[in-house]
Amino acid sequence: MPSFRGLQPSLLRPPAKPRSVDPDAHSIHVPVARAMVDCAVYSEGVRLPGKYTHGAALEKVHQLEQTGVPAYVWIGLHEPDEHQMQAVADVFGLHELAVEDAVHAHQRPKLERYDDTLFLVLKTINYVEHESVAMAREIVETGEIMIFVGRDFVVTVRHGDHGGLAKVRKHMDTSPATCSLGPYAVMHAIADHVVDSYLDVTDLVENDIDSMEENVFSPTSTTDIEHIYLLKREVVEMRRAVAPLTFALQRIGTDHNDLISKEVRRYMRDVLDHNTQASERVAGYDEVLSSLVQAAVGKVSMQQNTDMRKISAWVAIAAVPTALAGIYGMNFDHMPELHQVWGYPAVLLIMATVCTVLYMTFRRNHWL
């Protein structure tokens, strides 16, 4: 048996277990200010001067409310990460499920209620300028805007490079009467801005569809069905953004009377009408493009039939000299007119005559 005398005590002890390392212990969190587009406090319809953090803004609102002055805070975020969004959620008491949706995006338009907070998801669409559909790779791009609305706060989270709310905020800053209606008036202004953009984009897409329709039904032009498929794919993307919002806006106009004032609900019904109009346009475009696909397939089939008739006509014409040349190309001694002086020109004359008759016949039948 081996002896362990003379060995150092540290060699006799079992190896120590590695300490668990927190993956977030050494990570650097980006402050909320990096994702914050704007943060403002509104009191009695007027934006208060000064710059605020999200925590300081809410504290200012509470101070004003204690003096009997109505106030709320509107904070705008652009693509926050989990840490930034959680920091805002801790201050405003946002539900964790809605916070997760706001961070990861890719949500369908919807409306959810968490206690006294409404969570509205809007899909934004933007028209990508292009010279023609044939040269375009993308016609419509989409983004998202999430809106958290509470008794004294509005938190907007935007995803995508378009759909900025600077114009909406500027309009609200210059409309004290609208701002005085409270946080839900901000929700209406954002929804109205997004839905109005739907109508603008549908007008531009309609021009592309009209151009494609002219191309399909033009007898002298060739139609590439892939371009129609591109338009149809973009229209389907628009439909996914516009159509589901109708149900959410209907709920805003009829439910949640304990949260939303009667005046704001009237405004939301107007937004619902515009969204319904946009949804009907998109559905109509989808039907038109489906018809264009069928028309384009029929046009391609007719073109193929025409090409096949031309090929068949030329093959029939070429078959006559081929047959005669094949017959007289056989090496037999006893063949008619083989040793006649007029045999060769006679065969050429027969070939030319028959080919001319066939050509005139095919031309008369519009095969050539």
TrEMBL record:
UniProt entry keywords in alphabetical sequence: Cell membrane, Ion transport, Magnesium, Membrane, Transmembrane, Transmembrane helix, Transport
CDD domains xrefs: MtCorA-like
Spans through the membrane: 311-330, 342-362
Membrane-topology descriptor: Multi-pass membrane protein
Region annotation Disordered: where it falls in the sequence: 1-24
Location in or out of the cell: Cell membrane; Membrane
InterPro entries reported in the protein's UniProt record: CorA_cytoplasmic_dom, CorA_TM1_TM2, Mg/Co-transport_prot_CorA, MgTranspt_CorA/ZnTranspt_ZntB
Primary location recorded for the protein, binned into one broad class: membrane
Family listed: Belongs to the CorA metal ion transporter (MIT) (TC 1.A.35) family.
Function: Mediates influx of magnesium ions.
The name this protein goes by in its record: Magnesium transport protein CorA
